[in-house]
Amino acid sequence: MAFRVFVDANILLDFALKRTDYYESVRKLMEWVVEGRIEAYITPSIVHIAGYWLAATFKPEQAKAFLLTILADVRVIDIGHETVVNALHSKIPGIEDALQYYTALHHKLDYFISRDKGLQRAAIPILPVCTPEEFLKRNN
Prior knowledge:
Oligomer: single chain
Number of strands: 5
Low-confidence stretches: none
CATH class: Alpha Beta
Helix content: 55-70%
Number of domains: 1
CATH architecture: 3-Layer(aba) Sandwich
Structural class: alpha/beta
Distance between the termini: 14 Å
Number of helices: 8
Largest sheet: 5 strands, parallel
Strand content: 5-15%
Radius of gyration: 14 Å
CATH superfamily: 5'-nuclease
């Protein structure tokens, strides 16, 4: 069975922008998604965040094309009212992080992929937060 992982916005941006320090690990992570080794999930707000930065870096048409390509293999999951309330009551200080994390919890995902060390410290054992490098190393 494939692992079900949530992919944070910065991970998508590392991939799209080919950020030198991180590109190889996120490229490998996305390769695993395409191969079906993992199932990747994002929320509409991740599409929003990534779309904003990609449109600011490239032309809007290029940003849309990239996102549509990603969405061929990455599924968008929704967040409901109760999940939002739970996230806002959580100990995770960042609102955006709390919303994403609690959405992943609600959907019973296996991992949350992010470089956010604060979120990593606030995570609970049922949904570990790890970097792409850590995830690949654990599951290779």
